[in-house]
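Protein Record: Sequence and Backbone Structure Tokens
======================================================
Tokens: labelled as protein backbone structure tokens, with as many entries as the chain has residues.
Question of interest: how does this chain fold, as expressed in backbone structure tokens?

___
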Amino acid sequence: MLMLTGTQDDDGFIIFESRAIAAYIAAKYADQGTQGLIPTELKARALYDQAASIETSNFDVFASKAVAEKVFKPYRGGVPDEAVIADLVKSLDGKLDGYEKILGKQKYLAGDVSFSSMAVRNKVRD
């Protein structure tokens, strides 16, 4: 079995990937204070899944590479390639422009649901 950092073992049920772990915990403990964190209504859940997919496919791939180049490469003794970083930041700028258009019409990427927006916000803030 593939075991990664961020793996959750819940009495023998193994799950990895932070978004999947968060969704699992929110569903498992839905009656203990996480009501509404991940929507259950069909259309709201579709918008939530759409926002999570947008973040994964259109933001994370560029942000993760930029962080790896700027932070982790020097940490491991390498020299960051500023041209690579500039290209990644340029790509991110275009993605963030798209986010601005979405957020100009609604409060969060997923409409009234904030969970998907949290992942993006944390990456941008850091």
Notes: The first helix runs from residue 18 to 28. The CA atoms of residues 15 and 21 lie 6 Å apart. The chain has two domains: 1-37, 39-125. The chain is about 60% helix and 5% strand.
